[in-house]
Amino acid sequence: MANNEATDAFCVATGTWKPGITSAEVLRHYDNMAEKYDKYVHDMSYNGPRQCAEALAEVMSGNKAARILDVAAGTGLCATELLKLGYTNLDAIDGSQGMLDIAKSRNLYHRYICDFLGPRRLDIEDDHYDAIACCGSFSQGHLKDDCFPELIRIVKPGGLICIAMREEFLHTVEAYRGKLEPAMVALENKGCWERMARDIVPKYYNDKDGVVFIYRVLAQ
Ligand SMILES: C[S@@+](CC[C@H](N)C(=O)[O-])C[C@H]1O[C@@H](n2cnc3c(N)ncnc32)[C@H](O)[C@@H]1O
């Protein structure tokens, strides 16, 4: 498929998914496109994984042994960037076995968890991780704010959650417009986490801005 072509569900040139696409459809498409994913995003100058890894590293105080979960890890592009920065204690979770299989072939993570991120409890104990990196995973039909409580549960008090996404999706994706950031604020008001940063980063995906949120998890 050439760069400017679109499937019924995904337009490579814009990196956008069809409005109303379901989670099940999204995950099936990732399974089908897994082999081609890295070339698609490389051709579109996808800088998100580097920007996410660098933003997280900046607030990690140099703890290179930190246990980090790459959430919606895909083929492991964010892990590749974290490894370059010296972070080697990495696990992956993603709903697409096809994407995880590519990551596995690269030997990037200790644990590869194929599971759906949403409100349901994950097979991960409380307070397990020092940090979460979550890049490119808030998009049409992808993660929603309903997964935040689970992410908070599995991160240690004082641990960090870094979420990098296309800035425009905050306004253009129906599930996020007027909902995603208010849900983040509501969790802050409940004392679940505190915001450390909300930075706009240029050229996150081709010429599109990204937004990088960093939250510190508070003792519950
Ligand atoms: C654009 S890719 C990002 C992959 C990687 N983080 C990166 O930046 O290259 C989005 C990933 O989110 C995963 N995903 C989407 N919705 C999910 C859900 N509800 N639960 C688990 N994984 C999901 C997909 O399988 C896919 O691998």
UniProtKB/TrEMBL annotation:
Residue span(s) of domain Methyltransferase: 68-159
Gene3D superfamilies given in the database record: Vaccinia Virus protein VP39
Protein name: Williams-Beuren syndrome chromosomal region 27 protein-like
Matches recorded under InterPro entries: Methyltransf_25, SAM-dependent_MTases_sf
GN (gene name): LOC109478588
Organism, scientific name: Branchiostoma belcheri
Domain of life: Eukaryota
One Pfam family, short name: Methyltransf_25
